[in-house]
Design goal:
single chain; six-stranded parallel β-sheet; elongated; 56% helix; alpha/beta; 422 residues
Length: 422
Amino acid sequence: MQIQAWFAYPSIPTPGAVPLTLVESAASFDAVDPVDELRDLLRHHTGRKQEARILEILRGLDTDELNDALVQLDVAALFSTMDDHSTGPKNLTAVVKLLSNERLDELTPDSRVAIVTGMQTGRTRTVEERGIRDVFLGTHGADLTALKNGIDGGGDHHDLQELVFSDIDDESVKNEILAHIQREAVTNGDRKVLSDIDDTFYANWVDLRFPKKTVYPGVRQFYSELDAARQGDRIAFVTARPNEPSGTVKDMTIDMLRSKGAGEAVVLAGRITHFVGNDRIAEMKYKTFQDYRALYPEYPFVFVGDSGQGDPKFGLAMLETPNSAVQGVFIHDVVNTSAADRQIWRERGVIFFDTYTGAALEAFRKNLIGPEALSRIGAATVREMRTVPYESAAQRQAREADLAREVMAANAVLSAELQIRL
């Protein structure tokens, strides 16, 4: 009865005619979503026939469809499956040219990020290096800034620093990209926050005043306020930890930072040959800073480090770099630097602090944050200090004494600010 009811029409169709509703239904069954077809093609081995079909689909997509496809698909797989055959079609060149040149003007910043990251992942071949160059050179102003930050926001070692200074082998291509970045630099009011990791973000090297691996109370709020409404708490961590081709060390460091609440961290790693001695560490970090500054000339910088491993010298070198636009250098003191030495450093622009409430107070005095931000950082520092699993009562008392002193100073400043507003 159910089958009979299904086919029971109120009137009998004209002989030979097919109901319109059935024609439409059949067409819907035959239609294949192009993104789904591309995804299926990329899951399997591709020969020349499949490569030709991939190109056919991409060429046939309208602008919205193409952008949707690029943000949904594994674009790295797209490039890795295409080949330039020695005695046949140059399908890799064709897809690179299609996306980085012929249809580039149609692509959103997110799609451009997907293309560059896709060509960066794995072995970046000559044709892909040139494709990356074309994407950069075809992107301007605020869109170029968005492209660079998007590449840095991938959540792994495939970041902008690695792309330009490691993955691209052709020096002429690298220089074209860097020159374009310099030409297009337009200050937008944002800033980049650079930070050390060990003994700056968490206790992990020289600092024995906290249990090892303790994230310092208030540090995450300090980063957030310095970077408020700018890069989504994406802090660039400058480290002496070595970089290597696989990116394993960087990925492990990124995962650790993320697990401890550091947001969308970018890790600017060094070289293992420099991982000895404070002067060498400072030298390596300064070279890394110069590279990073070349990538982001539109931004001023703030650096947060510690007194245990060359960071004061690195911070001073940053400040003394002509036109570096360094707005502040803050050094977490983990070696009990004398008041006299702190003053010497301060006169040269390098500010030492004991807790992140103290760092916030110094940032407020430099007009890097407002009174509300100072209050939030102070509250976070107090709240998080209470949860630290100290190893002894003496250890707790010493740290709370440091905090009490800096909270008192911050409260005095906030009280004066309130009186001004009233």
